[in-house]
């Protein structure tokens, strides 16, 4: 198996090293390697008694804003305690090696930024950012807010503050989605990592890239809904495959410069 992975890495590295424009698309599997559970996997203990719709929807927020706030403060604390894993670090290194790299993520944490990636599009929002649920005014989280039993109130309209993440029934942020769409249409290589490929419209992005002639590379220890689309598949976690892939890309680029 390791020999097969090595061959796939060499093939993928050749494709990536020859590309001028690259899109990286990451899902929950990348953050899971840093100990950040998926939304449903995190519903353990007290939180296992609640339906996801109670914790991440406008209806749930209206019914019990304190419950939703406490859930997201719990999630935010987990994110802030986590650190970037080798996969995150490798993607930051890859950005420095590639003439044009756009990183699109379904994750709401900031581990890509903390690892060093400069251009990150968050399709599902950002758990560390907040805004008024009524007038949309941004809100800067205060230290006392973490332990508050209820959300803070907006200073302008007195409505409750909420995390700037996409809840069930909400549309994705238009600007980020449009930029992601354009990047998928224009890239030469589309690298998809740690996503099941079943959450739409985000899961359309690799299909769009493929339709416009891009090479699609998948890194995932499991078969996903996108596996049939991939030209090259690395059957391994991102934290294992990405450092090896990026090291091989760097090696090929150095050879090209000295040839």
Give structural notes.
This protein is an alpha/beta fold and 259 residues long. It has two domains: 163 residues, TPP-binding domain (Rossmann fold, 3-Layer(aba) Sandwich); 71 residues, SIR2/SIRT2 'Small Domain', CATH 3.30.1600.10. The protein is 41% helix and 17% strand. The protein has ten helices and nine strands. It has a six-stranded parallel sheet with strand order 3-2-1-7-8-9, sandwiched between helices. Strands 5-4-6 form a three-stranded antiparallel sheet, covered by helices on one side. Helix 6 runs parallel beside helix 10 and helix 8 packs parallel to helix 9. The protein is elongated. The model has no long low-confidence stretch (mean pLDDT 93).
Tally the beta strands: 9
Number of helical segments with 4 or more residues: 10
**In the CATH hierarchy, what is the architecture of the largest domain at level 2?**
3-Layer(aba) Sandwich
The averaged pLDDT comes out at 93
Strand content: 15-25%
Major β-sheet strand ordering? 3-2-1-7-8-9
Largest sheet: 6 strands, parallel
Shape: elongated
Evaluate the radius of gyration.
Answer: 19 Å
How are helices and strands ordered from N to C? HEHHHHHEHEEEEHEHEEH
Number of domains: 2
CA distance, first residue to last residue: 32 Å
In percent, how helical is the residue content?
40-55%
Oligomer: single chain
Structural class: alpha/beta
**Which stretches of 5+ consecutive residues score pLDDT under 50?**
none
CATH topology-level name of the largest domain: Rossmann fold
* Highest CATH level, the class of the largest domain: Alpha Beta
């Amino acid at each position: 198996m390791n020999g097969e992975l090595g061959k796939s890495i060499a093939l993928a590295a050749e494709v990536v090293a020859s590309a001028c424009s690259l899109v990286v698309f990451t899902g929950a599997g990348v953050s899971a390697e840093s100990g950040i559970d998926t939304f449903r996997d995190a519903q353990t203990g007290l939180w296992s008694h609640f339906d996801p719709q109670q914790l991440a929807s406008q209806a749930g927020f209206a019914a019990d804003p304190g419950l939703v706030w406490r859930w997201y403060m719990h999630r935010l604390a987990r994110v802030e305690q986590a650190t970037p894993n080798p996969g995150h670090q490798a993607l930051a290194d890859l950005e420095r090696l590639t003439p044009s790299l756009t990183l699109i993520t379904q994750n709401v944490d900031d581990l890509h930024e903390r690892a060093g990636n400069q251009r990150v599009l968050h399709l599902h929002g950002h758990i560390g950012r907040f805004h008024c649920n009524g007038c949309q005014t941004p809100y800067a989280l205060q230290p006392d807010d973490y332990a508050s039993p209820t959300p803070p109130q907006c200073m302008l309209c007195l409505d409750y503050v909420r995390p700037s993440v996409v809840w069930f029934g909400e549309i994705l942020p238009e600007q980020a989605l449009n930029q992601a769409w354009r990047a998928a249409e224009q890239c030469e290589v589309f690298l998809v990592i740690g996503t099941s490929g079943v959450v739409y419209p985000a899961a359309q992005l690799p299909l769009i890239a493929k339709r416009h002639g891009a090479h699609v590379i998948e890194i995932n220890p499991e078969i996903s809904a996108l596996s049939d689309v991939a030209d090259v598949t690395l059957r391994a976690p991102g934290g294992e495959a990405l450092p090896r892939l990026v090291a091989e890309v760097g090696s090929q680029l150095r050879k090209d410069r000295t040839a």
